[in-house]
Design a protein that fits this description.
This protein is mainly β and about 110 residues long. Helices cover about 0% and strands about 55% of the residues. It is built from no helices and 11 strands. Strands 2, 4, 5, 6, 9, 10 and 11 form a 7-stranded mixed sheet that branches. A hairpin with a 3-residue loop joins strand 9 and strand 10.
Length: about 110
């Protein structure tokens, strides 16, 4: 059974940094695309970053967020710098098209 478990969320002041981690168990990552979505209160879920054959970022993440993966550790990471209050959301890790974590809350105070 595949499980994705996020960690690293929390409360941070604007301008601060957080590093999200996602541990994948039950399946070798291989060439699967991994990534992060987020959902803010009252808004639709949106893609933040993904890493597969290429790396893609949402415009809102470019220059501030960095996605990386470690296949040996079955993990994917999201380094978030220069955080803004509008980055406040639940961040979800995903793999492929079918596998999702339960999310980790990021709150950025102004």
């Amino acid at each position: 059974q595949v499980q994705l478990v996020e960690s690293g969320g929390g409360l941070v002041q604007a301008g601060g940094s957080l590093r999200l981690s996602c541990a994948v168990s039950g399946r070798i990552l291989g060439l699967n695309t991994l990534g992060w979505y987020r959902q803010a209160p009252g808004k639709q879920r949106e893609l933040v970053a993904q890493i597969g054959a290429r790396i893609n970022y949402a415009d809102s993440a470019k220059g501030r967020f960095t996605i990386s993966r470690d296949n040996a550790k079955n993990a994917v990471y999201l380094q978030m710098n220069s955080l803004k209050p509008e980055d406040t959301a639940v961040y979800y890790c995903y793999m492929g098209v079918n596998y999702w974590g339960k999310g980790t809350l990021v709150t950025v105070s102004s």
